[in-house]
Amino acid sequence: MENKQNDKSEGRVATAIEEQTAKLPSDLFLWAALGSMTVSLTLKIMAKKHTALFVGQWAAPFLLLGIYNKLVKLEGHDQSHLQ
Hints:
mainly alpha
């Protein structure tokens, strides 16, 4: 029996996404999260409660995208090609 564990590879779509994502600087997502929190606070001060909550919820996805970006750079598909 062959060991198929080493045979795993990303599909074409995932590879294309990783290639494009790796081009973005990691701190872009941190600044986007901080920006959404700042805009949310500004909207809250302007008494636009629902819009402030909507924009404030963008921070978590931006931070998750930043983690994905960092993982792609450190452990992405191109790392297997280097070994």
